[in-house]
Amino acid sequence: MTATWLSPDLFFGGLEMTKRFEGRVALVTGGANGIGRASAIKFAEQGARVAILDIEEAPLGETAEIIRQAGGTVLTVVTNMRDREAVKAAIERVEAELGPVDILLNNVGQTARKNSTEFLDSVPETWDFVVDLNLMVTFYVSWLVAKGMKKRGFGRIVNISSDSTLIGERTIVDYVAAKSGVSGFTRGLARELAPFGINVNAVAPGVTNTRGPKQLAKEVYEAALADIPIGHFAEPEDIANAITFLASQEARCITGQMLTVNGGRIFY
Known about the structure:
disordered N terminus, Rossmann fold, alpha/beta, seven-stranded parallel beta sheet, globular
């Protein structure tokens, strides 16, 4: 008797790895730089038609040019992700021009950066910004996109959390709280949407070679590096590899999980 569970299609999805997103539309928020850019490029390399929403017009154009030069299909929409009407209009444009969204990467987010302080020195206006950009935008974009995924019976949502939620970081308590919310949201939404063929997972990057670490004072940079057992920061492509895996057929039985990519800074 042939064991049907050993069919190669179960393991490889019937597609070559390089084109595992052929025919899919991937939407990336905050895709102009860093992890978002690396992920958008990888989705395109693997066959997806990619849409990128970001507020930074020039870097957004650079990302799009990289994808087009490699023969990929990309649509960019300059969007203030905190403006709900603008986000709704942007997603409507994406679906009109590229087709329904099959894969959503909720990547947009940041700390308060230069306004980061110890909690007792912080102000509510900063909390509002950080929580809105990191958590509420993830809520809203997921709410818009998942409705169509449910109707079609397929979808992949990957949210970006942070390993700071596992450690507890000083001076970015608002960010830790917001990203902890993203992790909880991922688990709850995964349970709600699983019956409809939609997988929802999160990736929690550690310190990654994006713009943030490059702006750190030398002593802070060196201390952060010394805390990583493998001896180097992650590159955006390392995080993108985890994201595209969770969005792929290979991860079809994985949902509600948070994959930490941090070089061993903390084990989860």
